[in-house]
Amino acid sequence: MVQEYGNFVETETSKIFKxxxxxxxxxxxxxxxxxxxxxxxxxxLRFLDGVPHLLEDVQAIDKQLGREPRPDWNEFDRLxxxxxxxxxxxxxxxxxKLFIDVFTERxxxxxxxxxxxxxxxxxxxxxxxxxxxxxxxxxxxxxxADSKLRDFENVNLQDEVIRHFLEEVEPHVSDAWxxxxxxxxxxxINFNRHFYKYTPPRPLAEIDADIKxxxxxxxxxxxxxxx
Length: 227
Fold this sequence. Notes:
By secondary structure, the protein is an alpha+beta fold. The protein is built from eight helices and nine strands. It has helices spanning 2-7, 41-50, 55-65, 73-86, 93-103, 161-169, 191-195, 204-226, and strands at residues 23-30, 35-37, 104-106, 114-119, 132-133, 139-143, 151-156, 177-178, 184-187. The strands form three sheets. Strands 1, 7, 8 and 9 form a four-stranded antiparallel β-sheet that branches. Strands 4-6-5 form a three-stranded antiparallel β-sheet, with no helix packed on it. Strands 2-3 form a two-stranded antiparallel sheet. A hairpin with a 5-residue loop joins strand 5 and strand 6 (139-143). The two termini are 57 Å apart. The relative contact order is 0.18.
């Protein structure tokens, strides 16, 4: 082995690699948060148990916006904010979060929750990084990520994250995107990947013969014990 290392040649037990061969980018793959809003008495009581001082606001939301399920949180959030503004009421962030936690649930068929919008910039591969074009409008949207749907892709350092996403991810998950801000690089030396040699299993007839022989030996031993 030492001689092979010193000769710096590739053999069955000695291979030559670049540092990049062992490196990869760990890429977070996100999908949008989709929420269904629903008002009912039980949820209202749970919410007011934590923030009783918002009773009048919640009563107004219940009365004016109704109890029909709403699969578009963006639309409902706009209507609720308009209503609270009319009432000169401002909620703290913790209160807003509690409202969402209590009155919404994840729904795969609901509209994605919008995080922010911007004027369309026609940047190459903006879609890969989470900017979705809005049909019929000159704007792009980024959505809230659903942490429960988050996944990761390990992309070799010699590969391109953009190519990998477009060919290996987007065709299977059309609403996914890569979080560029959280990509991290790492290295791993996987000996099995580079040196493993496949050994085919023995023929079934040979395995059956061994099993029958073992059965006969067991029967023989049992007879000796019970004799």
